[in-house]
Amino acid sequence: MPSMLIRSKFLLLPLLLGLTVAVQASEECATAVQCNQVGTAAYQDGRYEQAIGAFERQLRRAEEGDTAQLELALNNLILASLRSGQTGMARAWLGVALDNNLSGSSTRLHLSKVAEALDYPTLAASPTGRYLRYGGSAVWSELLISEDGSGGYIASFSSLRAGARVEEYGPAAIGELDGKLVGDEVQMRLQDAGLGSDCAVQLLREGIELRVQEVFADGCQDYGGMGISVGGRYIKVSP
């Protein structure tokens, strides 16, 4: 093998099911090396979703400190996502590799492959779409931006915190936050989200990347469980 709104509560289910698929990939998939073998076999059979599940499990093992397996797992995920037609997810996994300062030959090759496959102009044309923020352990927080029917936009966040035993128990914490976006298509503020007047949430958009800044203060993160936040850097994976 080469080196989650329609409404977030509806999308959380497939996200959680994705974790279940990873757990069930194989009873023998207990180490990063074994998961690579299981995922590679599924990939070669054209069972890309099962391959992705095994490679996500490989990634969770590799994030514990094996840099070579980490880069291998991420490149596996990039390639399997490309082959399954999920070009946005391939770009998201590539971003994780780059954020980890990985630059092996396969990563460099996939950088070119993703650039060729991804329709950047279409993704960057409008704020609407699905955005993801990586949270470790192959878990992604999600932001959906949709039109409100009157020329504006609505943001729906589904934030997850993986926790140490995400495979056994699912995410350690979940949060949902919905509101109206006010501003232009580059700088926007979240309103009507049920937050206090001092709990500002700002969205700054550039191309397919979006950065969310929020105030951390008493009561400002009451939309989710312990350690939940919507702040951070997101990447757009689909229109």
Characterization of this structure:
- The chain has 239 residues and is of the alpha+beta class.
- It has two domains: 8-118, Tetratricopeptide repeat domain (Serine Threonine Protein Phosphatase 5, Tetratricopeptide repeat), CATH 1.25.40.10; 123-238, Lipocalin (Beta Barrel), CATH 2.40.128.
- The chain is built from eight helices and eight strands.
- The chain has helices spanning 8-23, 32-44, 48-62, 67-83, 87-99, 105-117, 120-124, 166-169, and strands at residues 129-134, 140-147, 153-161, 173-183, 187-191, 201-206, 209-214, 232-238.
- Helix 1 (8-23) crosses helix 3, helix 4 (67-83) runs antiparallel to helix 5 and helix 4 (67-83) runs parallel beside helix 6 (105-117).
- Mean pLDDT is 89; it is low at 1-26.
Number of helices: 8
Radius of gyration from the alpha-carbon trace, in angstroms: 18 Å
Class by SSE composition: alpha+beta
Strand content: 15-25%
CATH hierarchy: architecture of the largest domain: Beta Barrel
Work out the helicity level. 40-55%
Contiguous uncertain segments of 5+ residues: 1-26
Instruction: Kindly report the CATH topology of the largest domain.
Output: Lipocalin
Brief summary of the model shown:
Residues 1-25 form the signal peptide. The protein has helices at 8-23, 32-44, 48-62, 67-83, 87-99, 105-117, 120-124, 166-169; strands at 129-134, 140-147, 153-161, 173-183, 187-191, 201-206, 209-214, 232-238.
How are the secondary structure elements laid out?
Elements lengths: L7 H16 L8 H13 L3 H15 L4 H17 L3 H13 L5 H13 L2 H5 L4 E6 L5 E8 L5 E9 L4 H4 L3 E11 L3 E5 L9 E6 L2 E6 L17 E7 L1
Antiparallel strand pairs: 1-2, 1-8, 2-3, 3-4, 4-5, 5-6, 6-7, 7-8
Helix pairs in contact: 1-3, 2-3, 2-4, 3-4, 4-5, 4-6, 5-6
Keywords: Signal
InterPro entries: TPR-like_helical_dom_sf
Protein name: Tetratricopeptide repeat protein
